[in-house]
Specification:
Keywords: Membrane, Transmembrane, Transmembrane helix. The longest helix is centred in the last third of the chain and has 33 residues. Helices cover about 65% and strands about 0% of the residues. The protein starts with 11 loop residues before the first helix and ends in a 9-residue tail after the last helix. It has one domain. It contains seven helices and no strands. α1 crosses α4 and α4 packs antiparallel against α6. With about 150 residues, it is mainly α.
Amino acid sequence: MSRGKPMLGFSWPVLVGLAALAAPRVVLHDPGIIEEGSFVNGLFVFVPPACWVAAVLWKRPRRPFVTVVVIGAMYGVFLAVGHQLLWDAAFPAGIDSSVPEAAMRTAATMSSLVVGTVVGVVTGAIATLLCRIVPATPADDSSTDRGGERAH
């Protein structure tokens, strides 16, 4: 591994931290602490991806789209784990269904992974577009060469 910027522009702990910004929503939504459609819920939905875009605009990784898709996929993992851990809080009376709970949980996990990744794709597209529209600061332009490595 080179001493320059990581391929995604951030260290893995920072990528995980950015993804974790979106995790509190599931913790507050599944037990019913915040309600779907409320202003507070909206903040928990839109502020974390906005932070992902801001971080990408600040750091200017070589591949902003891939960077944000990775963050979104990690968010999907947090979402899946959160839903599984909070299953009983979300469905205190259980689910009245002929489908076995294991199948429902598997579907919820797959759905969470897809949702997180799709949020990453949409947010990554926005971040990439903004990276092309919003000029980089002079420090961003002079501190890296075309390959993303620090100039000496």
